[in-house]
Design brief:
196 residues; alpha/beta; six-stranded mixed β-sheet; three-stranded mixed β-sheet; 5 helices; 27% strand
């Protein structure tokens, strides 16, 4: 009788281990099946009129619409119900030019995206590439050299980081500021002011 209890306990433990191992093995298959069901439901909802068919974007001036659309990462036939707006908003905030963003779902088929961009204070040309930079010297976007000619042009290594300081200093002295074509950073220690 004593051996019968040991055999029953060992059998129960063995059965439990087999069930746990089977559940672990089936977990991957169950997950894959769940993903397929969610995808099918999303496609079904898109076909039923809840697919994203219009995207309104407001607030962008320096960030291209194409950059925003690619960052939203909306696959074809995505339903508005299945779209993760918070994840997309976080991707937009990762763009260097975006200060804040909101994404709103307007049922049945419209996505409304509003962004607030960081304010560019200068154009910075370094190694043949021109960027717009903000007060902190962050490279917001790459632009053609002649674009945004209303912004001061700073040139050279380290110029973007210190652009806001020299621009503010020149604004305090209108006679020095008049006719400035560019500000060239030399050796990350001084500025040459280039006049027209």
């Amino acid at each position: 009788v004593l051996h019968k209890d040991v055999v029953l306990k060992a059998g129960t433990i063995g059965l439990a281990l087999v069930l746990v191992a089977g559940a672990i093995q089936m977990r991957g298959a169950a997950y894959d099946a769940a993903v397929r069901v969610v995808d099918a439901a999303s496609t079904g909802m898109a076909s039923a009129g809840f697919g994203i068919s219009a995207i309104d974007i407001t607030g962008q001036a320096v960030t291209s619409e194409g950059t925003i659309l690619s960052t939203l990462d909306i696959p074809p036939r995505t339903s508005l119900l299945g779209f993760d707006a918070e994840a997309a908003r976080k991707r937009l905030l990762a763009l260097p030019s975006i200060e804040s963003a909101s994404i709103r779902k307007a049922y049945p088929d419209r996505l409304i995206v509003a962004v607030t961009e960081k304010t560019p204070v200068a154009r910075w040309t370094v190694d043949g590439t021109t960027y717009l930079v903000d007060n902190a010297g962050t490279r917001l976007v790459t632009v053609p050299a002649e674009a945004n000619s209303d912004l001061p042009l700073v040139i050279g290594q380290g110029a973007g980081d210190d652009a806001a300081v020299i621009i503010r200093a020149l604004k305090l002295h209108p006679l020095l500021d008049k006719g400035v074509v560019a500000l060239s950073r030399i050796g990350d220690r001084r500025w040459d002011v280039l006049y027209d």
